[in-house]
Automatic annotation (TrEMBL):
Keywords: Oxidoreductase. SUPFAM superfamilies: Bacterial luciferase-like. It comes from the Bacteria. The keyword Cell inner membrane does not apply. One of its GO terms (molecular function) is oxidoreductase activity, acting on paired donors, with incorporation or reduction of molecular oxygen. Residues 8-295 form the Luciferase-like domain. CDD domains: Tetrahydromethanopterin_reductase. PANTHER family: 5,10-METHYLENETETRAHYDROMETHANOPTERIN REDUCTASE, PTHR43244. This is Similar to F420-dependent glucose-6-phosphate dehydrogenase, Mext_1273 family. It comes from uncultured Acetobacteraceae bacterium. It holds the Pfam family Bac_luciferase.
Amino acid sequence: MSHPRIGFHASHEQFPPSELLALARTAEAAGFDCAMSSDHFRPWGAAQGHSGFAWSWLGAAMATTALPFGVISAPGYRYHPAVLAQGAATLAEMFPGRFWLALGSGQRLNEDITGVAWPEKTERNARLRECAEVIRALLAGETVSHHGRVTVVEAKLYSRPVQPPPLLGAAVTEQTAEQVGAWADGLLTVSAAPDQMRKVIAAFRRGGGEGKRLVVQVGLNWAPTEEQALAGAHEQWRTNVLGGEVNWQLRTPEEFDTATRFVRPEDMRESVWISSDLGWHAERLAELAELGFDEIQLHQVGRNQRAFVEAFGERVLPALGRRPMPADGTFS
């Protein structure tokens, strides 16, 4: 069985940036190997109530821990791709080998605040690839002018890292995974049924992703009792159980709250790993490791973050063989 690195997911939608910073340090002390940051302008629902700026937070988090970090962002809407490239280059220059950037097609909740029209999925995927090509060229030191779905005029990065950070492609469906395989250095996906995850991985490899990095974000909720675990997941994360295109089309937290008002606590088990049994969580993570993931980023969706970090650090992480930090201090 492969031995993936186990990461702590920092959810800006749910916690103040200052609290997330302390939690990242706690996760490092508990034995987590790496971390990942969300990048939201709005929370999913009113119960979450936060949305700090991920890029300034990443600088603080990477300066006060030794953890490698990743972040997922959507270029071409609230972020011009040249601005994302500059942000990624700055972090990678300051913290060599410790940063990766995942690019996704975005969701309306965050991206239409500038007033741009929100396109359908095919157009969003095309814009994603175009922006990825711009970002990669800038990170390579090229002077870029581009006129297409986005416009770039003689952009050049003057402060760049020796090695550009890996650009991952974010995908949930097989179709998107196959498309990002052509340009991405790796795949970022979310946990699902094992058969579905195998299909997504196979599609990514079929599209050009053979041999590239695989990262998965797992939504889970642990608490001392089953009742607490289920209630915590429902209170914080029921706004994320909508399927299909709905997650990417709703505009505001209020719309998500309305759309999920009839979601029951027991419905949460369809999309979140929920259990008070730490051994059960360890078994599920071992199953993911068998699929070949290089990193498994754990997103505890409940508010009991410190208890989760301590419990998993003591009981779950030691049960999993993890990939050690390479001798040069970098993650490939």
